[in-house]
Structures are given as structure tokens and as C-alpha cells.
Amino acid sequence: MPEGQECIQSRRDALVFKTLFEQALDAVLIADDDRRYVEANPAACDLMEMSRDAIIGGRIEEFFEVLEHQKVPEAWRAFQREGMQTGIVRARRADGSFRYAWFQAKANFLPGLHLSILRDVTEQRANEDARAVAHQELREANRELERSNEELSYFAYTVAHHLGPPLRTVASFSQLLRGARLAPEGLDHLSRMDEAIAGMRTFLEDLLTFAQVGRSGQTWRMVDAEAVVHFAVANLRGLVEESRALISHDRLPLLYADERQIAQLFQNLIENALKYRAGRPPRIHIGAAESGEEWTISVTDNGLGIPLDRQGVIFEKFKRLHGGEIRGTGLGLALCKRIVENYGGRIWVESAPGQGSTFRFTLPSAPALHGGRERAEALNSTERET
Question: CA 97, 100, 102 angle in degrees (round to 5)?
């Protein structure tokens, strides 16, 4: 290229660079080998809230702090060796305030001159810090909740465990008194006492079961939900026959869980449907549908139904919808919720007064089920052999 054309091209390149330099939305700074700024664009002046004259001639460390626990001279030497550098710096403004900036720097983009491009990330960093603080607070709250739940479970376990023997003693004395000559009024008092003892025994059993969910000692294995439902119905045979209930179910899945807990879950939901019937024989159907990596299992009845504003309350401990009208401890559905949440699932109800209820809960699909029911049954067989 002729010398004149080279000169023209050089002037064009310089003009293009100057235009880009002046119009750039990001801050652009140029420093010499002595770490002194020789040029700053308008965006850099805006970032630092300083005039160009206030920046030119100043050293990098007068305006910026490196966040990676390095002094600027140390970072500068590393920059000179590596030729490129990126990171986050804190920019000091004239009024003493700070802005955070992401930067990318190139050493010797021209001989003896070093280019830095900076972008203000103060707001993004503030949002990230807020999220980090919120996340830390959430972790601490979860740890405190876990500790509180563990203490509550231990307390409930202790109470249930230690009140059992005195209750059995009272029941024994009640039986002894029945052998004595008592007036009808005395026998009536004994009957009332026996009912109270039975209610307290049921409450303690429920409390003990509630406290044990999630504690050590769980036995995880492949559980046939159909067999568990049959077992639960057998346990409730007296109530089933008394109410003339009809109970049906779809093909139910194999679950990888603690068998006793799953049996308790189904038994509580079925018993709930039997107890809260609407003056006609209960019709209860249990269904299951797989979606992704979880099963949604439903227990539908034709019972009394539940008002919308009470559907969340019924899963709380000791909260009962019908008070003393129907015998219960107020722990049945709370225990269901605790069991389901122990497996990372959720439970809810869809209902309306007089139209029955459908309780739904989710449980994770067993890993073995990805190979089919036969493979899961084979896994169970292997577990039994070992």
C-alpha cells in the first residue's frame, strides 16, 4: 500500500477508535506502564462521577480496589504476565461512595498502553447479595425448624412412652373394680372411665407414631401399595362391616418406602372416610396416576365433605373439623401430612360439603420402577434373599 494511503488508513482507524471510545456505553480507561491513567471516556467519568481531568494522571489504586483479596500492584504484576484479566473491582467515587464494576483488561493493546473496559454491576451485585442473605437466613431457619421439630418429636415420644404404663395401671384397676359389687351408677362411671382410657390410649399411640416419623429406624424397601391397602382395610374390618362400606381401588404402584408408614397413611385416610360418612354406606375408591418422577394417589369418598375454608386446617395437629361429635385424636391427618412430607411429597384435599372428599398425595416413583414392575419385584426378591 502506498505511503499516502497508509496514512489515510491510519487516520481512519484513529477516527473509528476515537468514535467508539467516546460513544461506548461501557467505561473505557487506558493506563500506562506506571499504572497511571492517560485516557478516560465519558462513560468512565459517569461511573466514577469525576471529570476526565480528575482521572488523568491518577494511579489505578487511587480509584479502584480489587475484590479478590489482592493489592492493586500484585494484581497489576499478574496482569502484565498474563496479558488479559477479568474480575470485579470496587470503584471509589469523589464523594466517598462506591460502585461495583465488572472489568476486562488487555495488556499492551498498544505498546506501553493497557486497556480496561468496565461495566457497572452494583445493582446486580446488590440483588445477588440480598439473595445470598435471604438464602442464608432460609438455611438457618430450616436448621432451626429441624432442630425444633426434632425436639418436639423427642418430647412427644417421651410423653407417649412414659404415659403408657400408668394408663395400663388405671385400666387394670378398672377391670378389678368391675369384679366388685357396684351400683348401676358405679358401673356407668366405670364405662365412662374405660372409654376415656381407650381414647387416651389411641391418642398416645397416634402421638408415638407421629413422633417416630422421620426418625432413625425406618426400613426402606419395595412396598406393594395394593397389599398395604388390603392390610389397612383388614385392620378396619369392624368399622367397614358396621358402616357397610364398599372399598375399591385401581392397580396401585410399588413404592420404595417404609411399609409401616405407608400402611398408616392409607389406614388413616380410609378410616377418615369411614368415620365421616354422610348417613349412607361409604363408597371409597383409591386411584393412582404416575406423572414424571412421582405418583399421585387419591382416596375418594362420598362422605360429609369439607368446607373450603377448613381444608387447610384439617392437616394441622390437634385440629378437628367436628369437635367431639365424632371420636378422634386430631392427629390422623396431621400424621398423614408428616408421612407424605417425609418422602418429599405433598397432600391436599378437594371437597365440598355434602359432596364427599378426594384426598390426594404425591410420593416419588421408586428408582427400580424405571425398569418396570417386574424389575422392582425382582429387586424385592433379591432383598429378601439377602
Answer: 155
Least confident of 74-83, 219-228, 239-248: 74-83
Q: Are 146 and 152 in contact (CB under 8 A)?
A: no
Helix (H, G, I), strand (E, B) or coil at 237: helix
Picking from 359, 363, 361, the residue whose alpha carbon sits closest to that of residue 343 is: 363
Alpha carbons 328 and 193: distance in angstroms, whole number: 17
CA distance 101 to 66: 10
Tell me whether strands 27-32 and 294-301 are parallel, antiparallel or unpaired: unpaired
Question: Per-residue pLDDT tens for 348-357?
Answer: 999 988 889 9
Strand order in the sheet with 84-92: 37-40, 27-32, 113-120, 98-110, 84-92, 64-66
Q: Which residue has the higher pLDDT, 29 or 279?
A: 29
Q: Rounded to an integer, what distance in angstroms lies between the CA atom of residue 263 and that of residue 335?
A: 12
Bigger pLDDT: 10 or 123? 123
What DSSP line would sit under 298-332, residue for residue? Answer: EEEE-SS---GGGTTGGGSTT--SSTTSS---S-H
Q: Which tens digit of pLDDT belongs to each residue from 280-327?
A: 899 999 999 998 888 999 999 999 888 887 777 888 876 666 555 556
CA angle 147–150–156, rounded 5-degree value: 140
